[in-house]
């Protein structure tokens, strides 16, 4: 299923691909305290949370911000369920809607920005998984350039709550992917 938001569909595909290719689910990731399994749980929980806010349906049955590393189903199945729910929820809204509910403050935003926020989450966690498992980066410069404005609009207030690490200094020669990753506290 497609969401009606190409940026989100691209990010969902990236998350699906790297999860399916992840062989070592216990590998450490760029998310300091989490292994691959925990990042998968977190990424799945975030996509389910977007779906829940948009539809009023059930949210994740676990805490995405305190993943325990125990999967009830295979990782690829968990991600497929989550991104399918997210895509279906976004497909049910008008892309031009001025305000839709979201799981991140301010808990409402324009539909396109909400889809970009969900895409940013999926794409960056896909990068985390790829980096941890030795896979090629799914975060293209085109995708990163499209996501950076959303990151800059939403992330700063969330850093105070620990939702994002402090930005890492980059260089003027950085690629758009490196710019986004640095802004989100990662070291590409």
Automatic annotation (TrEMBL):
The organism of origin for this protein: Actinocorallia longicatena
Domain Mycothiol-dependent maleylpyruvate isomerase metal-binding, first and last residues per copy: 9-130
Name of protein: Mycothiol-dependent maleylpyruvate isomerase metal-binding domain-containing protein
Gene3D superfamilies registered for this protein in UniProt: dinb family like domain
Coiled-coil regions listed in the entry: none
Tree of life domain: Bacteria
A Pfam family of this chain: MDMPI_N
Membrane-crossing segments per the record: none
SUPFAM superfamilies from the UniProt entry: DinB/YfiT-like putative metalloenzymes
